């Protein structure tokens, strides 16, 4: 019983930044993302009689320890749902340069959820798949779909109403997403830890929650009306608010470096010249700059001129889970 799947990573425009339930990966607020065309994970899963334990190969290397344990725990979800006690061989290849500042957990768990459920004989619909992927990594719930996606936080304590749905397919609106690499060092505070500390200690966290709905409304409208200025303005504001919460945490922390801020200022300068571009930043120093395809070349050239910029990866909206 085998299946092979390709799932793409995504970039959040309205951030998932906090859980109300750690065990079930239930978020405090809805989030909105774009699934990207360029970076993806390909995963094959083979459930096999006779295996006495799960095996996990990542980029050709056998993985042991904590990472293997996470895969086993995740496969238990699938086994329980299918009521089958079979072990599996999981082989994943990440086409997500870790240096690119994208979390491969989103594409990784979306691909694993789809390949494992298919291989064990479950025919899940996209919402059911999103619910399973969410329990590997929250942002993976969004990579089930292509294009513009919203993850509804849900209200139920069992998480059965916390899954993503597609707002608009990738081919309905082309945007350029430039992933600007300023440094490739491992980030000190991983997003899981970062959001946990913020929820538990940040004096700005309630303000984040109090203003998230207006951001979601504006982002939905911006996408549906293909209004780039509206979407860009709100995604940049939302990223800044997310990072403001980390400054008011205890202990405080900041993902940015001087290079991060230099890129932010260059984006602002481009806008003042009438070249619409907006930035968003996740749990690290690298910056994602979003512009319209007509401005992609000039924006890329201007950012490349900054000494602090090491590399720029250009992406566009991409597809959801693909069964190979
Ligand atoms: O992607 C976003 O909405 C915003 C972030 O990237 C950070 F800026 C959070 C991603 O968190 P994730 O890695 O999914 O956490 P997990 O559920 O603890 O695995």
Automatic annotation (TrEMBL):
Q: Name the EC number(s).
A: 4.1.1.33
Per the UniProt record, which residue ranges are transmembrane? none
GO function term, MF aspect, one: diphosphomevalonate decarboxylase activity
Signal peptide range: none
Return the InterPro entries for the record: GHMP_kinase_C_sf, Mev_decarb, Mev_diP_decarb, MVD-like_N, Mvd1_C, Ribosomal_Su5_D2-typ_SF, Ribsml_uS5_D2-typ_fold_subgr
Residue ranges constituting the Diphosphomevalonate decarboxylase-like N-terminal domain according to the UniProt record? 7-164
Q: Name one Pfam family in it.
A: MVD-like_N
Q: Does the keyword Lipid metabolism apply?
A: yes
Q: Does the keyword Flavoprotein apply?
A: no
Keywords, in A-Z order? ATP-binding, Lipid biosynthesis, Lipid metabolism, Lyase, Nucleotide-binding
Which segments constitute the Mvd1 C-terminal domain? Answer: 179-307
The record's comment on protein family reads: Belongs to the diphosphomevalonate decarboxylase family.
Q: Report what the protein is called.
A: diphosphomevalonate decarboxylase
Taxonomic lineage of the native organism? Bacteria, Bacillati, Bacillota, Bacilli, Bacillales
Q: Which gene encodes it?
A: mvaD
């Amino acid at each position: 019983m085998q299946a092979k799947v390709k799932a793409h990573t995504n970039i959040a425009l309205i951030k998932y930044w906090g859980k109300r339930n750690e065990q079930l990966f239930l978020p405090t607020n809805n989030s909105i993302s774009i699934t990207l065309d360029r970076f993806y994970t390909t995963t094959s899963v083979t459930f096999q009689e006779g295996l006495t334990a799960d095996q996990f190969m990542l980029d050709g290397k056998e993985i042991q320890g904590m990472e293997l344990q996470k895969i086993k725990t995740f496969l238990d979800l699938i086994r329980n749902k299918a009521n089958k006690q079979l072990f599996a061989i999981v082989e994943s290849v990440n086409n997500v340069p870790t240096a690119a500042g994208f979390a491969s957990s989103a594409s990784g768990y979306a691909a694993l959820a789809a390949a494992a459920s298919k291989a064990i004989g479950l025919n899940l619909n996209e919402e059911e798949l999103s619910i399973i992927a969410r329990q590997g990594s929250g942002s993976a719930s969004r990579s089930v779909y292509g294009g513009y996606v919203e993850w509804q936080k849900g209200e139920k304590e069992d998480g059965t109403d916390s899954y993503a749905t597609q707002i608009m397919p990738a081919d309905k609106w082309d945007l350029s997403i430039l992933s600007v690499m300023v440094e490739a060092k491992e980030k000190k505070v991983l997003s899981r830890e970062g959001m946990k500390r913020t929820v538990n200690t940040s004096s700005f966290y309630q303000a984040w929650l109090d203003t998230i709905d207006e951001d979601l409304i504006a982002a939905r409208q911006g996408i549906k009306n293909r209004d780039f200025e509206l979407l860009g303005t709100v995604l940049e504001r939302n990223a800044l608010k997310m990072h403001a919460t980390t400054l008011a945490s205890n202990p405080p922390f900041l993902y940015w470096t001087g290079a991060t801020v230099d890129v932010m200022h260059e984006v602002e300068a481009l806008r003042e010249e009438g070249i619409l571009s907006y930035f968003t930043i996740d749990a690290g120093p690298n910056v994602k700059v979003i512009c319209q395809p007509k401005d992609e070349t000039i924006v890329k050239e201007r950012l490349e001129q900054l000494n602090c910029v090491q590399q720029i990866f250009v992406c566009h909206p991409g597809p959801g889970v693909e069964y190979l």
